[in-house]
Design goal:
Elements: H1 6-22, E1 32-36, H2 41-52, E2 57-60, E3 82-87, H3 95-98, H4 103-127, E4 131-136, H5 144-159, E5 163-167, E6 170-171, H6 182-193, E7 195-197, E8 205-207, E9 209-210, H7 211-223, E10 231-234, E11 239-241, H8 242-266, E12 282-284, H9 314-342, H10 346-355
Parallel strand pairs: 1-2, 1-3, 3-4, 4-5, 5-10, 6-9, 7-12
Antiparallel strand pairs: 8-11
Helix pairs in contact: 2-7, 4-5, 6-8, 6-9, 8-9
Length: 356
C-alpha cells in the first residue's frame, strides 16, 4: 500500500489551484467591462485600449450620464453580464485642484467621493465582480485627497476582494480648466500665450506617465488580475523636476517655431495679425517652494511589470501634447478669422450713403 504525505499533497493541490487561477485572464468573451469615469483623462484612454483589444464596454462618463453619488446608481446595470469593473470615477484633478486653498474645494473632495464610495462599493460587493480601483501615491498624505484615497484602499481591504492601483502623475491631452494638470496647462499656455507660469521655483521632482501607457497598464491588470498584488504602483519610475519639464516644453516650442519659420520663408503667404506659429515660450518661476511630498519609490517588481512597460517617453508625450494644442489653437484662429470676414463692413456702407 502506498503511503501519501497528506500535508504535501494538500499543499500541491492548493498551489496548483493558485497558479491555475492566476493563468486565467479576463477575456472579451467573458462579458462586458464597466468603466466608471470613462469620460476622464484616464478613462477615455482606457476605453480606446479596451476597444482596440476587442472588449465590449459599458461606460459611465460623468455625472450627466450617471450620478454615482446617488444610492442605487448602478442598479440599472444589474441585468448586464459584466466581467470586470474599472472604478476610475473620482472628484479629482491636478495639483492646483487637490492643493487648492479653497475650503469649498477641499470639502467637495471628501463629500463627493464618500458619496460615490457609499454607492459603488456595496454594489460591487453584492455582485462579486472583480474590479480595479484607482488610488494615488499621495494616499499617505494628511490632506482631504490623501484621506479619501486611503479610505478607498481600506474599504477594499475590508471587502476582501478587488485591486488597488496607485497612479503617479498621469498626463495627456485634456480640456484646460480647474482640474487640468500641470503639463497640459503649461503646454497649452506655451502654445497660446508663449509663456509658462510656474507657481513654484520648479525644483520639486515628479514621475510622469502618459495616459495611453496608463491605459495599457490598467488593461494588463485585468489580464493578470488573480496574480496581481492587492496594491500596485503604476508609474514610469523616472524622476524629473518641473524645471526640466518646462525646459522640455520650451525646447519643443523652439524646434516647432523654427520649422514653421522655415516653411513660411519657402512659401509666400498673406500677413495676418493672428499667428498660428508662435514664438518660443518664456518660462517664469516663483520663489515659492513646491508642495512637500515624500520621495517615495514605486514598486516596479510587482507582477504587472512582468507584462507591461511604459512605451512613451516624456519628450514624445509632451511633443504630442504640443501638436494637439497647436492644432486646437490654429483651429480657433481660423474660426476667429472666418467670423471676422463674415462681419459687415459698416464703414464702407456709411461712406456709400454719404456719396449718394
Amino acid at each position: 500500500m502506498h503511503r501519501f504525505n497528506v500535508p504535501f499533497v494538500l499543499a500541491c493541490v492548493l498551489l496548483c489551484g493558485i497558479f491555475a487561477t492566476s493563468a486565467i485572464p479576463v477575456t472579451p468573451t467573458d462579458g462586458k467591462v464597466l468603466v466608471l469615469g470613462s469620460g476622464g483623462l484616464i478613462g477615455s484612454a482606457l476605453v480606446k485600449w479596451l476597444h482596440a483589444n476587442h472588449y465590449e464596454t459599458i461606460e459611465v462618463e460623468n455625472r450627466e450620464s450617471v450620478d454615482l453619488r446617488a444610492p442605487g446608481a448602478l442598479d440599472r446595470f444589474n441585468h448586464e453580464t459584466i466581467s470586470f469593473v474599472y472604478f476610475l470615477a473620482c472628484e479629482v484633478g491636478g495639483s492646483k485642484f487637490i492643493d487648492s486653498s479653497s475650503s469649498e474645494v477641499q470639502l467637495s473632495i471628501i463629500t463627493h467621493n464618500l458619496a460615490i464610495y457609499q454607492s459603488v462599493f456595496p454594489w460591487l460587493a453584492s455582485r462579486k465582480i472583480p474590479f480595479v480601483f484607482t488610488s494615488s501615491y499621495l494616499q499617505s498624505q494628511s490632506t482631504p485627497y490623501g484621506t479619501i484615497k486611503r479610505l478607498g484602499e481600506n474599504w477594499i481591504a475590508s471587502l476582501g476582494f478587488g485591486r488597488v492601483v496607485r497612479l503617479w502623475n498621469i498626463y495627456g491631452y485634456e480640456e484646460i480648466g480647474l482640474k487640468s494638470h500641470v503639463l497640459t496647462d503649461w503646454t497649452s499656455s506655451c502654445v497660446k500665450h508663449q509663456q509658462i507660469e510656474c507657481q513654484t521655483d520648479g525644483t520639486e521632482a515628479r514621475q510622469f506617465l502618459h495616459s495611453d501607457d496608463c491605459a495599457a497598464a490598467l488593461g494588463s491588470m485585468m489580464t493578470i488580475y488573480d496574480a496581481s498584488d492587492l496594491v500596485t504602483d503604476i508609474s514610469s519610475d523616472q524622476w524629473v523636476t518641473l524645471r526640466e519639464c518646462a525646459s522640455l516644453i520650451q525646447n519643443i516650442s523652439s524646434s516647432s517655431s523654427s520649422s514653421s519659420s522655415s516653411s513660411s520663408s519657402s512659401s509666400s503667404s498673406s500677413s495676418s495679425s493672428l499667428s498660428s506659429s508662435p514664438d518660443p515660450c518664456e518660462i517664469r518661476y516663483s520663489d515659492r517652494k513646491g508642495t512637500a511630498r515624500a520621495r517615495l519609490a514605486p514598486n516596479t517588481t510587482a507582477p504587472l511589470y512582468q507584462v507591461w512597460k511604459p512605451t512613451i517617453t516624456l519628450e514624445e508625450g509632451i511633443r504630442q501634447l504640443y501638436q494637439a494644442y497647436s492644432k486646437e489653437h490654429a483651429a480657433a484662429i481660423a474660426q476667429a478669422q472666418a467670423q471676422a470676414q463674415k462681419k459687415p463692413d459698416h464703414s464702407s456702407r456709411s461712406t456709400n450713403k454719404q456719396e449718394l
